[in-house]
Amino acid sequence: MVLSLQIVLVVTSLILGLSVLLHKGKGGGLSSLFGGGMQSSLSGSTVVEKNLDRLTVTTAVIWIAAIVGLNLVVHYNVG
């Protein structure tokens, strides 16, 4: 049980990191420092960006659930 939760945690951590890095910069932050703020904001959100948002949120929820589950299993010594 602990091993499977640890594997889920590592995989979701990697997916979460990659999906955050794939997001387009919205400007005003560090992304504008490296030229990300030069793009025009006329296009709006595309389908790919919306799907990437969904992937990021879903992965974050699974990541948090894996952390809570791993903590409960280790604390109560379930298996």
UniProtKB/TrEMBL annotation:
The chain crosses the membrane at residues 60-78. It is a multi-pass membrane protein. Keywords: Cell membrane, Membrane, Protein transport, Translocation, Transmembrane, Transmembrane helix, Transport. GO terms for cellular component: plasma membrane. GO terms for molecular function: protein-transporting ATPase activity. Pfam families: SecG (PF03840). It comes from the Bacteria. It is found in: Cell membrane; Membrane. One of its GO terms (biological process) is protein secretion. Involved in protein export. Participates in an early event of protein translocation. Belongs to the SecG family. This is Protein-export membrane protein SecG. It comes from Corynebacterium glyciniphilum AJ 3170. The lineage of its organism: Bacteria, Bacillati, Actinomycetota, Actinomycetes, Mycobacteriales. The gene is secG.
